[in-house]
Every structure is written in C-alpha cells, then in structure tokens.
Amino acid sequence: MGWFSRKPRSRFPDDMTDRLAMLGRFELDVFGSGEDSTEIFPYCIQPFWPDAQEDPAGFVADLLEFIQGDDTGFATYGASRLVRELIGDEAVLKSPDSLALLDAGIEFKRMRNLPTAMLTGHEWGRWLDVHGPDTWPHGRPHPPV
Questions:
Q1: For residues 114, 29, 82 and 121, what is the CA-based torsion angle, rounded to 10 degrees?
Q2: Using an 8 Å Cβ cutoff, are 116 and 136 in contact?
C-alpha cells in the first residue's frame, strides 16, 4: 500500500540548488559573477567537506542525481566544481559519476561558446581524452581587438 512511503531525505540542504548555482557562477567568472567571494567557502564548500570525506563515492552519486533537471546549468557547473574542491581520491574522480559531472560542466561551457582558455586544466584534459584535439567548437566570432 504505500501509506508510509516517502521520498528519502536528501543529504543536501533545501537551498542546495542556490548554493551550487552560486558556486557555478563564481567559478565561471570570479570578477563578473556578482558573487561575494567571502561567502563561497563557508556557504558553498565547507559545509559539505565532512560528508564528502566520509562517503566520497556516495556524495558524488547523490550530487549527480541532485542536479538532474537543472535548467540554467549553473548548479550543474557548481556541482562539477564542488567535486573537484572536495574529493582528492583519484579513483573517485575517475568514477563514472564524477566523470559525468565533469562532462556536464564541460558541456555547460561548450553550450555557451566559450573558448578553450575558459576550461580548467582537468576539463581540457577530459575533453581531449574523449574527443581528441581540434574538436572544440570555436563558437561565435569575436569582435576585432
């Protein structure tokens, strides 16, 4: 019957989408995001450190599930960056869930026609591993300088 069936409680706070989007905006454009840099660590990163250290694979899996349906992409990019901030175990970083978050973060930038200079080193390395060199779309032409 389902009288007592309820959705399991998320390990994340109710405002997690806002926190991830804030981190994503900040990481994408530190100076132009409008985010207060003094709030990033205590609000977006530090609260999740204990959980990520206790169960890194579970944390990443839950984060990947959490961002499904993100319509702006900023929470997705924030989730991708949060994993890189909190997880040091290379085996976890190379897991399918971590790579799916990384790929989603890369796709967020690709869909915005950003140049490869806007990719972090591990993002660019992942792109090259998956797609090879000379495959990044160059996007809109930039105005002459």
A1: 50
A2: yes
Other Cβ atoms within 10 Å of 127 Cβ, number: 21
Cα-flanking dihedrals φ and ψ of residue 97, to 5°? -70, -45
Cβ neighbour number for residue 123 with a 10 Å cutoff:
20
Tokens of 94: 């190379």
Question: pLDDT exceeding 70 applies to what percent of the chain?
Answer: 88
Note the helical H segments in 1-145: 16-28, 37-39, 49-54, 56-66, 74-86, 90-93, 96-111, 121-131
CA distances 55 to 22, 46, 61, Å, are 24, 15, 10
- At 37, is the secondary structure helix, strand, or coil? helix
Encode pLDDT of 79-113 as tens digits: 999 999 999 999 999 999 999 999 999 999 999 99
- In which residue are the tokens 């989408």 written? 17
Question: How far is the C-alpha of 64 from the C-alpha of 101, rounded, in Å?
Answer: 6
